[in-house]
TrEMBL record:
Protein family membership: Belongs to the 'phage' integrase family.
Highest taxon of source: Bacteria
Domain Tyr recombinase: 171-373
Keywords for the protein's UniProt record, in alphabetical order: DNA integration, DNA recombination, DNA-binding
Name of the protein: Site-specific integrase
PANTHER family: PHAGE INTEGRASE-RELATED, PROPHAGE INTEGRASE INTD-RELATED
Organism for this UniProt entry: Enterococcus saigonensis
One function term, GO molecular function aspect: DNA binding
Keyword tRNA processing: no
Length: 407
């Protein structure tokens, strides 16, 4: 157990080799060797301390395993707990933002100061930096469960906080005012189908792009003028696209469609039928045919909307906006038209009314100006009334002075 050995400089020192148990990952026996003790007693004390740690299932060795190895194992478990699209999004975030900084480091050597440095770095450029902290922390928790580290260094980091003025800009992402939206849609009419129908529906229903691209003809009720959201299109592992049930119950909804948008949809349905007939394509039966598909009648990729939106904006020098910006636009204009909070929440499928209220408080420029103008008009009308009344009083006084009393 305790052995004496001679160092390179000729001095005598003591060492020990200790059995640490079975590695839970490899199934092999684990040993550790400690050297450099000045006396047998010092080596014995160190050995006893180590054995206490082993009995308490504490960290038994400086693990040589890399962060990336444990991350891969954790993701395999995580995959079974969330929707595939969520798993893919988180894996992409890990590969892009976490792996370059942590992947090749030994899990046991990653310190709190190092983690703090990376958290500050994420904060400097990435809005969803808290998500990266959570993902990284989950890998450390996994390592902790395997007794490879003593503690989770991410638990000790100080999370930077966004300044208040930045928080207030949460919903200041680009969106269109009424006039800007109408201009965009008028321009979109000049582009090949189905560009205009796609953006008309986005703008006049507030659908998410995944919900839009998952619409089937059976989801449109032409008699009742309604549209039902029953599924969503998502990008999954290996860039596959799949149909999924929306995340929440509130996302499953049926909403009304205005008559003009309904006519746009009807005209597009006719054009799609004509194209299928011309190309010899058989539509999917039982109403399962999608509204928007590729030339081979395959579901469109989510980037199809983004790509065509960029083309329209760049070619016509329009204000930049994302597909989700049309949802924000629809929401804002609904409030401007007089819709209630509850009506907007149901129409957009918001689970939490706070989401609706956050957009509600972000009033459009026109509303802000109108509020000031209404107040000014009110005050002006009051001043005019008071001015007219004052004139009448003055005239009455003047007449009284000019009247000769009858005696």
């Amino acid at each position: 157990m305790i052995k004496k050995y001679k160092k390179k400089n000729g001095t005598i020192a003591y060492m020990f080799k200790a059995y640490l148990g079975i590695d839970p990952v490899t199934g092999k026996k684990k040993y550790t060797t400690k050297r450099g003790f000045k006396s047998p007693q010092e080596a014995k004390k160190a050995y006893n301390r180590l054995m206490v740690q082993v009995e308490e299932n504490d960290v038994v060795t400086n693990s040589q395993r890399l962060f990336s190895e444990l991350a891969d194992e954790w993701f395999e478990q995580y995959k079974n707990t969330v929707r595939e699209s969520t798993y893919v999004a988180q894996k992409l975030a890990y590969k892009k933002h976490i792996f370059p900084l942590f992947g090749n480091l030994k899990i046991s050597r990653i310190s709190i100061p190092y983690c703090q440095k990376q958290v500050n770095h994420w904060y400097s450029y990435y809005k969803k930096y808290s998500n990266l902290i959570g993902l990284t922390s989950s890998v450390f928790k996994y390592a902790l469960s395997l007794r490879l580290i003593r503690s989770n260094p991410m638990d000790a980091v100080i999370r930077p906080k966004r300044k208040k003025q930045i928080d207030e800009e949460r919903y200041s992402a680009p969106y269109y005012e009424k006039e800007e939206l109408l201009e965009f849609l008028e321009i979109a009419k000049n582009y090949p189908d189905p560009i205009y129908p796609i953006f008309r529906i986005l703008a006049f229903t507030g659908l998410r792009k995944g919900e839009l691209l998952a619409l089937r003809w059976k989801d449109i009720d032409f008699e009742k003028s309604t549209l039902s959201v029953k599924q969503t299109l998502a990008t999954c592992d290996k860039w596959e696209i799949k149909f999924q049930v929306p995340k929440t119950e509130k996302s499953l909804r049926t909403i009304s469609i205005d008559s003009e948008t309904l006519q746009v949809i009807k005209r597009w349905q006719l054009k799609q039928k004509e194209y299928f007939l011309k190309m010899g394509i058989k539509p999917t039966k039982n109403g399962e045919q999608l509204l928007f598909v590729s030339e081979e009648n395959k579901p469109l990729y989510l980037d199809y909307v983004n790509h065509n939106l960029k083309i329209i904006i760049n070619e016509n020098n329009l204000k930049r906006i994302t597909p989700h910006g049309f949802r924000h636009t629809h929401c804002s204009l609904l409030f401007e038209s007089g819709a209630s909070l509850k009506e907007v929440q149901v129409r957009l499928g918001h689970t939490d009314i706070k989401t609706t209220m956050d957009i509600y408080t972000h009033v459009t420029k026109k509303q802000t100006e109108e509020t000031a103008n209404r107040f000014a008009d009110f005050m002006s009308s009051t001043e005019e009334k008071q001015g007219s009344l004052q004139k009448v009083k003055s005239m009455v006084k003047s007449e009284k002075k000019q009247t000769i009393p009858i005696r």
